[in-house]
Amino acid sequence: MPKDSHSSAPAFAHTFNPFDGEQHRDPFALFEQMRREQPVFWSPALGMWVVSRHADICSVLRDPERFTSLDAYAIGAEFTPEAAARLATGHPLTRTLLDNDGAEHARLRRIVGSALNGKKVEQWRPRIRALAGELLDAFAGAGRVDIAAAFAEPFPLRVILDMLGVPLADLPQIKRWSDDWFELLFARVPPEQQVARVESYLEFQRYCDRMIDARTTSPGQDALSEMLQAGRAEQVPPSRAELISLISGAFIAAGHETTSRMLCNTLRVLLTTPGAWAAIVADPGRIARDLEEALRVEGTALGMLRVTTAEVVLGGQTIPAGARIYVLYASGSRDEQQFRCPAQFDPARANVMDHLGFGRGAHYCVGALLARAQARIALELFAERLPGLRLAAEPAPVYRSHVTIRGPVSLWLEWDVG
Ligand code: HEM
Description:
single chain; alpha+beta; CATH 1.10.630.10; three-stranded antiparallel β-sheet; 17 helices; about 50% helix; globular; binds protoporphyrin IX containing FE; oxidoreductase; iron
């Protein structure tokens, strides 16, 4: 921590707190103030430097040598001794993609990417559409639903598990395991709850172990078989522990909550912007651009972490080596120096693709094509079958504490039936 951080920190440095779920509802005025007054600042509450402008964020992302992802999430750093001891009884935690860099990152990224490239996503499209349709069938006649619970949460997880060749009956259990683990890493779980979460993760590891065994003896067309094959082609094949981290972390954990929140954010912006939903219903061809603009204006990826490897000067601030950097993507995507009228939902803007919704550079979201495919398919189906969709007057959308992801965890929608 810098010596003078408290005395020189701007007021918002003490206010900004992604662990306060209420702030996720509308953090954009605060972000605007950050960009204007002190675009790079030390946050005493987070113990990190926050970077809020598009250009500064891009400088960080372009320079992995000085701003590394290596151990940026420092897995295990805040575990209680009891939780750490239980964790040590399972497969060792290994770096995956988000917390890795250089050749090791590239090697693991090739393995995960083999199952998520354009060709693979294209092959899964009919199945993704069928899974979305099944969920929609269950509530289309109701006229009112919490779309987070009924669709946005189960849909991406179903897609990922289906791709991995996992029976859908195991979904609730996997969701619990994955949530327990993700919260342990990102949501400041109280010490007394940590051991139970670790036990849950160990069960998740054993489940993955069995899956890998099964696919090794009888490979299929699924994403896990694909990753196992890609792994065998590597000069340094992935260890069992690495494979488990890739399945549980890079695939399941990274791939479902993000997409769930993005679907809710997208629906919310489309249904609150006058004329936007009607325009999609009239011309579903607009969905692809609208989606990119929703990713920009309602940032789902709030921010991600990096660590400095040397003293750096950024946004006029001198940051020491070894400091944690929080690149605030949801702010960069609203930067007035990058986007004209940044708060306005305007899919026709020329630079609609310049958003930071999937990051940038070597760590650009490896699941972006899958996430886009899911959102497009969902919106196409909704436009076709629920053209009169609107936001319910109440209850209000609910947001929750999270350091990397933002978006409604409850979003009530209505439409006319019969
Ligand atoms: C709309 C949904 C999604 C959003 C908003 C999102 C956002 C992001 C962002 C911002 C990053 C960059 C991280 C960084 O800069 O450090 C990222 C990376 C990543 N995403 Fe996504 N993601 C989504 C969907 C998915 C899906 C569906 C998957 C997999 C099935 C996935 C897997 C990953 C992985 C493994 C990384 C790490 C890549 C690397 O470090 O090389 N994501 N994602």
